[in-house]
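Form 12-C: Joint structure prediction
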Amino acid sequence: MIKLTNVTKSYTLDDDVVFTALDDVSLTIQKGEFSSIIGPSGSGKSTLMHIIGLLDKPTSGSVFINEKDVSKLHDNDLSSLRNRFVGFVFQQFNLINKLTVLENILIPTIYTRTELSYNPIEKARYLLKRFGLDSKEKSYPNRISGGQQQRVAIARALIMNPNLILADEPTGNLDSKSGAEILKLLKELHENEKITVVIVTHDTGVAAKTERQIVIKDGKVQ
Amino acid sequence: MKNIQFVLQSAFEDFGRNKGRTFLTSLGIVIGVLSVVILIAFGLGLRKYIDDQFQSLGSNIIRIVPGQVLRGGSFSSTGGMSTIRFDNRDVLRLERVKSLTTVVPIVTRSISVSAGRDPEIATLYASTSDIFAALNLNTIHGEVFTKKDLDKRSKVAVIGPKIAAKLFDTEEQALGKTIKIDTQNFKVMGVLESKGGGGFGGPDLDSFIYMPHTSAQVFNPDKKFYAIIAQSSSEVSIETAKEDIKEALLKRYKEDDFSVIDQAELLGAIQSIFSMINLVLVAIAAVSLVVGGIGIMNIMYVTVTERIKEIGIRRALGARTSDILLQFLVESVVLSALGGLMGLALAYLIVFFIQKFFPAYIDLNSVVLALGVSSVIGVVFGVFPAKKAADLSPIDAIRNE
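Section 2 - Result
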């Protein structure tokens, strides 16, 4: 489903030194996979996540999504693709605090350019119920626990029925109990709904829970 | 459309949370719109006021004055330079013009008047008894002078209510009293109804003192007239009457020696001066709108910086650069338009009170102008901060803490 061929990403730093974050990475993630990208900080895993998540473009090489090369797409098309194809889950939850839980979940639906086949509010309420958050619909994110916030973020990631859930250190800001619950939830999504889930982490314990570990070090996939 | 609705809603919710900041940010626009709208309201009021003044002066009135007073619709800078003065021969000549019903000569000057107290400055208006009918002047106390007073050179005066009240305690008390005009004693035989006026550089009609021009010869020894007022017959057009007057006077004077002006021309010339003054004032007030716009731009830049993370999140979730641009642009337009609305509301309130003593009013154009201009300011001064927000890289934005 996602294929990276010879992807290199480099940045020019202030003193004209070229820093290579990703060095000739080729990688395929199959549809329905439950995998993790694991590496220490500075290994290039965040850059890899940004490229898989279509937030960034490679300096060279190509990114294919369902056989289509997306590395040369215009920013607007990338935005649309992110909107429909990817659901992000972040370490910091990244909910907007001035919006209610329900409004946060609905954000992706206001930016879609295609007609949705379902009622977004009904779907958001269904997800909230499923994640045990039905009483928190009108709460604000900073009024609920970290574990609850991360479940809201997962509900937001699911609202557009994405093919891929991309979770960046999803348990990094949670206690071990909440962290385990979140991982269980992601695993269920993979098992029950055949959604492709990629977890980016530095935690080998987290990575061990996934079916495939993609190890990255110094910008290279091992 | 969904996006616009959402963006508007979230903008209003944001302002609701930050009422103090929203108000202070819009304050520049509030003051700008307020001053522009009030000044326009004053300009409109002034125009109406001058119009009403001229209406009250009687219709079909034509003024014949020495020199070239009006040129190209406005007052000539060389006006009144002519040395000619009208005399009785001119009056008699004009009385023979068939298209005119009334011809009255005018002698006018500033003069000091007293009645036992400190002297007041008034305007002397010496003429014939027909002046009252021509200028729609009616007495509230006593009578106007007659042709007989003119022939007898009676030392009588008909005075405006304002000067009457100044010289005596009430207007009524002035009747029958003797007043000292310059060095001469005159008997007050009538007090006129108020005509309004005064202020704004216009003539203070209520402080005029009317007397037979024959009695005023002591103040005007050469027996010349400063102006002649004529009233055209209702059967002919005012243009015809003016042509007839010119034809009659050209037998004696050159074309440049005198001007024949009707009310409309005079009104137009006065209006054009006030319009110009008003325009300058409005332009100065408009500067504060620009200052207000800069205030909005400043706060929008702060807002963008504060919300970099939010922008990153929205971008990650599929917002296009145009969506972000729109969001911030809508916020600055709403902010500015809210300021415009508040300014307009305040202007309405102030004009409502001003109306108790001056006919200022806010017309539809001012409303459209105020809201239109404030919205445009929102766009102009919001576009740079919004562009900054939209151009942020999603990755950098989302990493921002």
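Section 3 - Comments
The longest helix of chain B spans residues 263-306. The CA atoms of residues 332 and 382 of chain B lie 5 Å apart.
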